[in-house]
Amino acid sequence: MKALKGWDWPGNIRELQNVIERAVIVSTGPGLEVPLQDLQPKARRAAPASKPATYHDTERATILEALRASGGVIAGPSGAAARLGLKRTTLMSKMRRLGIRRPSF
């Protein structure tokens, strides 16, 4: 009871409902047994060190990564456009808009 009362219930009533339902399922006797591991804080993943700030930053970083992975090739089956699921002309238009020049690898 102490663990149930002390938990801050970040998932609100749904989380409480799920814990009670699980306790009913796993309990073997007349008493309700709540697995305490269900009430342990979950480890959170650390945020990336350099997170792009805007949609344009994200789009730019994605295009640059695809260009690096393709060795600077834009068109063709292993080019950056194919890796991104774009037409060659669409990728070139986005590159112009974002100020990305074709890298020389």
Describe the structure.
There is one protein chain. With 105 residues, the chain is mainly alpha-helical. It has 2 domains: 2-39, no CATH class; 55-98. Helix content is 49%, strand content 0%. The longest helix has 15 residues, at 12-26.
What tags apply to this protein structure?
49% helix; 2 domains; 0% strand; 5 helices; single chain; mainly alpha; rod-shaped; 105 residues
Provide a compact summary of the structure.
By secondary structure, the chain is mostly helical.
Separate helix tally: 5
Estimated helix fraction? 40-55%
String of helices and strands = HHHHH
Give the low-confidence spans: none
Mass-distribution shape: rod-shaped
Q: Major β-sheet, in short?
A: none
Oligomer: single chain
Distance from N terminus to C terminus (CA atoms, Å) equals: 63 Å
Strand element count: 0
State the domain count: 2
**Overall average residue pLDDT:** 81
Classify the beta-strand content into a percent band: under 5%
Q: Could you say which structural class the secondary elements and strand pairing correspond to?
A: mainly alpha
List the helices and strands and how they pair.
Blueprint: H1 2-6, H2 12-26, H3 55-69, H4 80-84, H5 88-98
